[in-house]
Every structure is written in C-alpha cells, then in structure tokens.
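Justification of resources, computational component.

The compute hours requested in this renewal are based largely on the per-chain cost of generating structure records like the one below. Each record pairs the submitted sequence with a full structure-token output. That output is archived, and it is also reused by downstream analysis tasks.
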Amino acid sequence: MHCPFCRHPDSRVVDSRTSDDGSSIRRRRQCPSCTRRFTTVETTSLSVVKRSGATEPFSRDKIVGGVRKACQGRPVSEDDLAILAQKVEEALRSSGSAEIDAYEIGLAILGPLRELDEVAYLRFASVYQAFESLEDFESAISGLRAEHQDRHGTRSDDEPPAL
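The structure output for this chain reads:
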C-alpha cells in the first residue's frame, strides 16, 4: 500500500475494524517514511461472468434497473428495490465465490422479488426463465398458490371459506 502523502511503497497497519454489515474492513495505516496516518477500506470484489464469457464488476445498480422494469406500475418503492439489491448481493457474497455466473444472479433475485411483489416476480421470471406458453405461467402461478396455502393453512379452492 503506497502512502498517499509521500508515495513510500510500504505502510504499517495500526488498527483494523470490520464495518457494521461485515462487508468491508477499515484499516488505519501509518507510513514508516513520513509517519503520517491514513485510512484504507478493503472490500472483496465480485465479478459477474456473462453468457458471452466476458467478466465485469458486480453492480447493485444493474439489479435495481432490471427489477425496476418488472415492478413498473406496482406498489414498490426505490427503497424496496435497494433493499432487494442488498439482499441479493449479501446472498452472492455468502457463497464465497469471487466470480458469479450471471444466471446465478437471476436465481438470487427470484426469491426476494417473490417476497416483495408476486406480480413483479411473475414478470421477471417470465423473461428470465424464458416462459414460452401459457402453461409456463400457469405452472408458476400454481407454485405461488401452493406457497400461499402452505403459509395460510391448507384449503382447496372447492371449499368455501370458514365463517
């Protein structure tokens, strides 16, 4: 680590602390040459491997942009989108891999998006999973209905609601 003041090629770590969310480390350093102190922040970098084989840095903004299209006209705020992107990034970082396949990012988006808004989830899934027929939509909707029944007690559609 070069000293930002005198450009000396080395420095000594005086103090290290992790950030509140654990995603970065703040280090207080001292230059042995000029004795001035400076702070560095270290984060792990995530790279996205695209279908073409190209690699680019991970971007929360790209997640928000893609999900925003699926949420158009839905009661989803920018804060909701930011939280979703954070959840996705945390899930990807917890995998321990520095390179993430673009397909895995889409899979990581589906769960939090389903919790946020089911209509937006269906829109995103229909593009991401390349739905080709009405049966694909029906299958996804059946899955959502089954999930609702599991969460809210089992009741078939033929039974009248309890009064």
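The first strand starts at residue 12 and ends at 18. The radius of gyration is 23 Å.
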